[in-house]
Amino acid sequence: MPSQNPTINPLQNQSLPAQAPPPIPPQPPAAQQQPITPQNTPIYAGFLLRNAALFLDTWIASIPSVLIAALLTTPIALISGEPLSQAFGKPPISIIFNSLAVILIWSYFVLTTYKFGGTLGKKVFKLQVISEDSAPITFSKAIIREIPGKIISGLILGIGYLMVAFSKEKQGLHDHLAGTHVIRTEPVTGRTKLAVFVLTIFPILFLVILVLLVAFPIFFAFRAKTTMPVNKPGLTQYASPIPKKSLVSTAALSRDAQRKNDIGLLATELEGYKVLHSNSYPEDLSALLVSTPENPSPLQALPVPPNNSEPQANYGYTKCSTNEKQEAILYTKLEETSHYYVWSSAASSTSLSASLDKPTCP
User: Fold this and answer.
1) Rounded to the nearest 5°, which phi and psi values hold at 181?
2) What distance in Å separates the CA atoms of residue 192 and residue 124, rounded to the nearest whole number?
3) In this structure, which of 76, 124, 331, 359 has its CB flanked by the most CB atoms within 10 Å?
4) Structure confidence at residue 239 as a pLDDT band (50, 70, 90)
């Protein structure tokens, strides 16, 4: 049987060509950072808008304070029978109330700013507090902004708050200290403008008008009393109705005030002399001018009584010695009442003598 030769495929021993790799799908282009344009730039909240929100927050934060005051004072007033005003004015109640009020107000501003990005007043006016990098405000920044920042802004006569009106990015001093901005989340509408006017501009205008209505009548009434027209032939003058005696009395009171101050100064020096000299007062006031090792810085000069035209107007000094201890008295005659103003070491105080006679040792 003849052998059968298999058919040899000429392509069998040839290597097959390598298949081309599948095409790589095109990658999406990398996201490019959107440039800052006027359309996506944050709109900073102005002074009037923020002031209206603060005014509203003040009313909101005061509600818990009023409730606490009522809870603290009402039971005490009912038990003691005192009016609420007197019960509230007692030191324990007032101290507790002031402490709780401060804690509540600060907690309100800090927690709402941190948790919601703004207080309730800011939310009403569509405002939000953010960091300078546009990130949400952190708890530490909320504390710095609302407590020390606003305290400093208020202590410098409110200049820290007024900086909002003149700052390019509408930042107050407390915003600079905490690194924050206050932005608008929605455009200002007509209702918002009306609310700002009612909460800020209208109260200011009302206060100014009220002050003028009260001040003008007082001013004209005072002018009518202090200036009286005196008609003379061909001449109109104004004469003051203030009597000469009133002017003299005012000057006398001023001189008496200086006499009282001088008596207080001498009394202080006498007590210091007594401590340095074994509980002994000097024989006369000139000893207060002597420099000693115990008192290297004495008085440079004794005070001189004002309008010292009468001998009885001089500052009097008497050393009173007893078997047990020494006492001293200082006195001067007041010009207005003709009574003596007396300092006594025994009483350690000054008083106005009821007698017109010169004081003596008891």
Assistant:
1) -130, 155
2) 9
3) 331
4) very low
